[in-house]
Structure prediction request, 373 residues.
Amino acid sequence: MGEAREDREKVIVRTSLIGILANLFLAGFKAAVGLAAHSVAVLSDAVNNLSDALSSVITIIGARLAGRAPDKKHPMGHGRIEYMSAMIVAAIVLYAGISTLVDSVKKIIHPEEVSYTAVSLVILAAAVIVKILLGAYTKKKGESVNSGSLAASGQDASQDAILSASVLASALLYRLFSIKIEAWVGAVIAVFIIKAGFEMVSDAADDILGVRVSSEISVGIKKTILQDPDVHGVYDLIVNNYGPDRYLASAHIEVDDTMTAREIDALTRRLQQRVYEENGIILGTVGVYSVNTEDDEAGRIREDIRRRVMKREGVLQFHGFFLDEAEKRMTFDVILDFAVGDRQALYREICDEIRAAYPDYSVQVTLDVDVSD
Prediction:
């Protein structure tokens, strides 16, 4: 895993450096063309390239810091720094977009004469081609190493190619037909930049706050665990993310109530090894739900309660049932849909119904959270 992370960091740094050089090159030429032609659209495009270069610098710094070894204060490593760097990049993009929009509006209110030469048109056309190639390359590399910031940069570069093409189109319109729309094109570019910035803020905020793990990951872990013949069910799977490709998971499993501590210990270690080998995820904690195997009455009560609970709209899952006949106690968990308006009210209704149906038993119902598919 350490070697894989080192290779990943090298790919991110190398790809980002290519992006920095390309964007600085484009920004310089576009700035020269924009100043010479008095074109706010071209200057806006140059600012966009400059912000992309700065974003790549932040990406490199974030990758370097995120790759630091775990320490006492950060035992799970520093991977989440990449999400913080993505937020900084988003702020830079937003600032570039807003400042560009302000300049474009000024040019719309107080227009200036523009002048495009044949050389400037060639430069703008070349910039479109460079952005297309850079976008495809960066996105491919980002997806190959699961770097959200790189993949986003690639997508951004592809969108920039479209914006640069619109700048070229406005220049051609002016040169061929004397139709001046470059200030409006600059404003449109600014709006696209601002939109991209807000989307980047949203994505980075989701990563920092923590979001539901992808179905591919959760289904993969559950499939691996359920392959073991001693496991009857997998529930309450929680996968914590500590940076790209850094996950720590916990889950509850249903096993026969006749299993000994020694057998459960062996099962737990077996599952942890398999989940890591097949999914690349550390299964840190394995909780246990015991299933009644020696009492037919317990099985009948279980199915009756399952029917009562699952008939209610908004109930997603019923699990973890166990009946202790000696203590006259039953326990089980329910998961309610987040779409339920008053989840606590539905929870109380379920508790009241089961307690009324089985007044001789102490009923303990746990309201679980729907955290994985």
In short: The chain has a mean pLDDT of 85.
